[in-house]
Automatic annotation (TrEMBL):
<comment type="similarity">
    <text>Belongs to the class-II pyridoxal-phosphate-dependent aminotransferase family. BioF subfamily.</text>
</comment>
<dbReference type="GO" id="GO:0009102">
    <property type="term" value="P:biotin biosynthetic process"/>
</dbReference>
<dbReference type="InterPro" id="IPR050087">
    <property type="entry name" value="AON_synthase_class-II"/>
</dbReference>
<dbReference type="InterPro" id="IPR015421">
    <property type="entry name" value="PyrdxlP-dep_Trfase_major"/>
</dbReference>
<dbReference type="GO" id="GO:0016740">
    <property type="term" value="F:transferase activity"/>
</dbReference>
<dbReference type="InterPro" id="IPR015422">
    <property type="entry name" value="PyrdxlP-dep_Trfase_small"/>
</dbReference>
<dbReference type="InterPro" id="IPR004839">
    <property type="entry name" value="Aminotransferase_I/II_large"/>
</dbReference>
<feature type="domain" description="Aminotransferase class I/classII large">
    <location>
        <begin position="34"/>
        <end position="397"/>
    </location>
</feature>
<keyword id="KW-0663">Pyridoxal phosphate</keyword>
<keyword id="KW-0808">Transferase</keyword>
<dbReference type="GO" id="GO:0030170">
    <property type="term" value="F:pyridoxal phosphate binding"/>
</dbReference>
<dbReference type="Pfam" id="PF00155">
    <property type="entry name" value="Aminotran_1_2"/>
</dbReference>
<dbReference type="InterPro" id="IPR015424">
    <property type="entry name" value="PyrdxlP-dep_Trfase"/>
</dbReference>
<protein>
    <recommendedName>
        <fullName>Aminotransferase class I/classII large domain-containing protein</fullName>
    </recommendedName>
</protein>
């Protein structure tokens, strides 16, 4: 049967994306590969003790596996409500609302919480889920500020902080740890700025802790808790699909905001709630946090971060001298040790570097526009507590080999045609 007009149009769009080297596909990693890519920062997803405790907890109950419906119908349970209260108390929040994903949580917050006449101010590198929420938002004034730049944030807020504007609410959206660069938001400075400029308390900070959960703060409670800002941040989002080896998220907020979202947030209302096994996985993860069982894992993770950066420094001279045929540096290394497990190896040839590392058994991914701004393409490296010194050393040697090969003119970047680039992208 010949393609329909719809399929023809879709095929044209896909071919356009392929021609722009932006076509995505689903791939799985070969067995035995070394993970330097996933968000499994504490390596709980492969931790045998964690798996054993999860399965033991799961087998203790006769609760139905599926939630069977939306929380507003039959999908709610005493277990879910108890878990919400427990997590909220752990993070020092007055209330919490579980959601199926961090994406659903951000879309719910930024679509339905701001009202007509309100303003949303956001870091220019905020997550795509916040943008998707703002697209449907009733507050049409949406203003970005330069990434992590408190001075620029102050410039933006100065236009909104007049006494005559006290009737409208200003929402400021930031992340505690940014997923592509791995840098940390200046939370304390932002909180102090909002308190000074909005004495009428009509400005609210919304903090996404997705990449901080389990790693920072007392027993992995996050950056807000680490900085003692629990009572000064209006809304927090913690996700469970990264360091906590589960999936889903929780919105930490006031009881009034929680009830409002239950009544108005369509991604929460019109979807089947997460299953009981998923709730048990979240409960197991928070039991580990509460008991301090992740503290040694987090400490080892930061030890590996320091080792990785120390080993990268051995490539500094080589990287500074290695260029492609156009005279552009093959790779630009971090100039300071990251404060998170996320390293950005900046390169104009991220697919070539990633392909070389993958062939050597390392899972890393090229990140290109539009995921990151044009000209900031990179290979993103994520470390995990379960990685070893030997794995890191081998990866550094692998990257060194790529730099030497490419700078000598015998590598793929010096002889790859446009068609070759497209074929390589399809493999990645």
């Amino acid at each position: 049967m010949s393609p329909s007009p719809l399929e023809d149009r879709l095929a044209t769009l896909l071919e356009k994306r392929r021609a722009q080297s932006r076509l995505r596909s689903l791939k799985s990693s070969p067995a035995g590969s070394v993970d330097f890519s996933s968000n499994d920062f504490l390596s709980l997803s492969t931790n045998r003790d964690f798996q054993h405790e999860y399965l033991a907890s799961l087998n203790q109950s006769h609760t139905p596996l599926g939630s069977t419906g939306s929380r507003l119908l039959d999908g709610n349970s005493q277990y879910a409500e108890s878990l919400e209260r427990e997590i909220a108390a752990f993070h020092g929040a007055p209330a919490g609302l579980l959601t199926n994903s961090g994406y659903d949580a951000n879309v719910s917050l930024f679509t339905f919480l701001p009202q007509k006449g309100d303003v949303v101010v956001y870091d220019e590198l905020i997550h795509a889920s916040v943008h998707d929420g703002m697209k449907q938002c009733r507050a049409k004034d949406q203003i970005p500020f330069r990434h992590n730049d408190v001075t620029d944030l102050k410039r933006v807020l100065a236009r909104l902080a007049s006494p005559a504007s006290a009737h409208r609410t200003v929402f400021v959206a930031v992340e505690t740890v940014y997923s592509m660069d791995g840098d940390l938001a200046p939370l304390t400075e932002i909180v102090e700025l909002l308190e000074a400029m909005f004495p009428a308390h009509n400005a609210h900070l919304v903090v996404d802790e997705a990449h901080a959960t389990g790693i920072y703060g007392p027993n992995g409670s996050g950056r807000v808790c680490e900085l003692g800002l629990e009572k000064r941040v209006s809304i927090r989002l913690h996700t469970f699909g990264k360091a906590l080896a589960s999936n889903g998220a929780i919105i930490l907020c006031s009881p009034v905001i929680r009830l409002y979202l239950i009544n108005y947030a369509r991604p929460l209302i019109y979807t089947t709630f997460m299953s009981y096994p998923n709730l048990v996985a979240i409960k197991t993860a928070y039991t580990w946090l509460q008991m301090g069982k992740v503290n040694m894992l987090a400490a080892n993770l930061f030890r590996l971060i320091n080792h990785f950066y120390t080993r990268l420094l051995t490539l500094t001279t080589l990287a500074s001298e290695a260029t492609d045929e156009s005279g552009v540096p093959l790779v630009v290394l971090p100039t300071a040790c990251p404060e998170s497990p996320i390293f950005a190896l900046m390169s104009g040839h991220p697919r070539s570097l990633a392909s070389h590392c993958q062939a050597a058994g390392f899972i890393v991914r090229p990140v290109v526009a539009p995921t990151v701004p044009q000209g900031t393409e990179r290979v993103r490296v994520c470390l995990h507590s379960g990685n070893t010194i030997e794995q890191i050393d081998s990866f550094i040697e692998c990257a060194k080999t790529w730099i030497l090969t490419e700078s000598s003119g015998t590598g793929t970047t010096s002889r790859r045609s446009v068609q070759d680039e497209r074929q390589l992208l399809a493999k990645l």
